[in-house]
Structure formats: structure tokens, C-alpha cells
Amino acid sequence: MRIILFGPPGAGKGTQAVKLAERLKVPHISTGDILRRNVAKRTKLGQLAQKYMAAGKLVPDDVVIEMTAKRLKEPDAKQGFILDGFPRDLQQAKALDKLTEIDLVINLFLDPEDLVKRSTGRRVCPNCDAVYHFLTNPPKKRDICDNCGSALIQREDDKEDVVRTRIATYDEITAPLVAHYKGKGILRDVYASGHIVEVQHRILEVLPK
Ligand code: ADP
Ligand code: AMP
Hints:
- This protein is α/β, with parallel strands linked by helices.
- The chain has nine helices and seven strands, in the order E-H-E-H-H-H-E-H-E-H-E-E-H-H-E-H.
- It has a single domain, classed as 3-Layer(aba) Sandwich (Rossmann fold).
- The chain is globular.
- The protein starts with a strand and ends with a helix.
- Adenosine monophosphate binds next to helix 2 and helix 3.
């Protein structure tokens, strides 16, 4: 299955994508993770992307589209994928339409103040990209990744002012894509409030039987 996990920053896309990818045995492709790895390695792409990401703005379409197209062509994505963080505007959605067919768009939605709480409390593993929340989804050992033992960090763009800019960017530029996918008849809304397992069950309910 080729699935897009759609929704505002902090809705829980990455958290749910990891679980769904395991279940469906397809890769989880997060454009945010790919960009952050490039920033950490100081590649040309990372150096270009960094200032946009730090400000909560979208990285320019041409580079993100090229990066995602390359990733989707890798052999592990042939049988399907969970795409998280792409597309984020109409130009990206149209580029994706040309690259591949999408079977399902899962649209996570949540109250804006809950989005802020989730993002500002997020802690991530810089080594394996695992995601935690210091209150609602803590690691077993404080600030240590359960998977690989690395020290967790707070993302630079998870400070409250940048989080609010990212939510505004989503509302203005990304949310209109809901109409694009509704028009194709492949969008399913899923309320993202409640425990992670509860949200997971709601997602499983919208998968084709
Ligand atoms: P996104 O990928 O949409 O930005 P994440 O999956 O990174 O969102 O989740 C944002 C934050 O909220 C993380 O700190 C994560 O641990 C936490 N989180 C995710 N789902 C839930 C949930 N259902 N209840 C509480 N916290 C959650
Ligand atoms: P995310 O990990 O999805 O929260 O993304 C973090 C940041 O990476 C975003 O705020 C953007 O700056 C950048 N980014 C990720 N995906 C895209 C995309 N599809 N288009 C443009 N910028 C992106």
C-alpha cells in the first residue's frame, strides 16, 4: 500500500507511521528525517535546508521534490511506503501524482493547542530518529533512547515560537491539499487525540479490509 500520513506538525504522523510501516512491512519515508540527516552531515542539501527548517518555513520545492523522488525510486519502496511530511504544497502534490499512485491519505487532525503541547514536549534521538514526549511518551530511562541508548535532544524547531510558525505555515500552505486528495476520493480523516494506541486503532479502521 502507498499511504500518505497527512496532518499538522505535532499531530503524531511520525509516531503512527513507524507502527504502520512495521505492520504493513513497507518503509517509513519522512522528508523531515531525511532533511535533518542532511543538516547533521552538513551536506549541500542540509546547508541549504537548515535556515528554512530553523525558521519553520518550507524548504524550496525543487530540492524537496528531487530528494523525495530519489527516495521513492529505491527498491524497498516498490511494494509501498508510508510517506510522512510530503507533500506539503500543491506543487509537491502534483509532482507526486506524476511519480506514483497513492492508495490512501490518512488525515490526522487535532486542536491547535494540543499540537503545540505535543511539539514542545517532543524529544528525538539524533542517532536513530526515534520520537518521544517527555510527558506523554517518555523513554524508559530519562532522556536516553530506548532503541539505541543515545542521548535524546529537543529539535531546534520545537521551540514554541517556531512551532507556532510551523502550524501557521501548515494552515496556509499545506492544509489546502486536503481538497486535492478529497477530490480523488482517497482521503480519510482520523482524530489524533487520545492515547497513541487509541489513535493507532482509529487508523487501522480506515485501512481497506
Ligand atoms: P508529527 O510527526 O506529526 O510532527 P510526532 O509523531 O513526532 O508528530 O508526535 C509529536 C509529539 O507528540 C511527540 O513528542 C510524540 O511522542 C507525541 N505523541 C504522538 N502521538 C501522541 C498521542 N497520541 N498522545 C500523546 N502524545 C503523542
Ligand atoms: P517535519 O519533520 O515533518 O516536522 O519537518 C521539519 C521541517 O523540515 C519542516 O518544518 C520543513 O522546514 C522541512 N520539511 C520537511 N518536509 C518538507 C517538505 N515536504 N517540503 C518542504 N519542507 C519540508
